[in-house]
Design brief:
Helices cover 78% and strands 0% of the residues. With 178 residues, the chain is mainly alpha-helical. α2 packs across α3. The chain starts with 5 loop residues before the first helix and ends with a helix. It is built from 9 helices and no strands. The longest helix is centred in the middle third of the chain and has 24 residues. It has 2 domains: 91 residues, RNA polymerase sigma factor, region 2, helix turn helix motif (Rna Polymerase Sigma Factor, Chain: A, Orthogonal Bundle); 78 residues, Arc Repressor Mutant, subunit A, CATH 1.10.10.
Length: 178
């Protein structure tokens, strides 16, 4: 995956530990692109992927003295970026699904007749983008603010919001019929 060998990466880390700060900079430069691609493959968001890589580099600096020189540094960095991506994903889910009461409020705003406790499952049945846009809309974000947050066009946001409302309603009625 990395464009530089593990031996070279270990050599750069060892040089950094011996006081050569430019070696750390070079290590970051040679591994950034690959770590970013890996983080992006999990997070599907450029800014979140950049944050993940930055946090992994900070953790690397913190843990550098503990890393053994014969360790597979590229594997270590890959593991760190995957774990950080999972942490970010979990945090985002917690932010969006702070509690069942909030989710019920979303459902009532989308479908005022809905007072069902299974609303959360219906929301989770929506695809990720639809759920994200629906929740942002619920939080009171304007369409333009949703565009800024998601990187979608205004027309995409409008269509996805309508689709999310319709899919939620369809899934709700299907659930009620079962």
């Amino acid at each position: 995956m990395f464009s530089v060998t593990n031996e070279k990466m270990n050599s750069l880390l060892k040089s950094y530990l011996n006081g050569n700060n430019s070696a750390l900079e070079e290590l970051m430069l040679v591994s950034y692109k690959d770590l970013f691609k890996l983080a992006y493959s999990y997070l599907k968001d450029k800014m979140l992927a950049e944050d993940a890589v930055s946090e992994v580099f900070l953790k690397l600096i913190e843990k550098a003295p503990e890393i053994k020189s014969d360790r597979n540094l590229s594997g270590y960095l890959k593991t760190m970026i995957i774990n950080k991506s999972f942490d970010i994903t979990r945090k985002r889910k917690q932010d969006f699904f702070a509690g069942d009461e909030l989710i019920k409020q979303v459902a009532v705003k989308v479908n005022p007749n809905n007072k069902d406790e299974y609303t959360r499952f219906i929301l989770f049945a929506l695809n990720t983008k639809e759920r994200e846009i629906l929740l942002l809309w619920f939080y009171g974000y304007t369409l333009n603010e949703i565009v800024e947050k998601t990187g979608l066009t205004i027309n995409q946001v409008r269509l996805l919001l309508e689709k999310a409302k319709n899919n939620f309603s369809l899934k709700y009625h299907k659930y009620r019929a079962d």
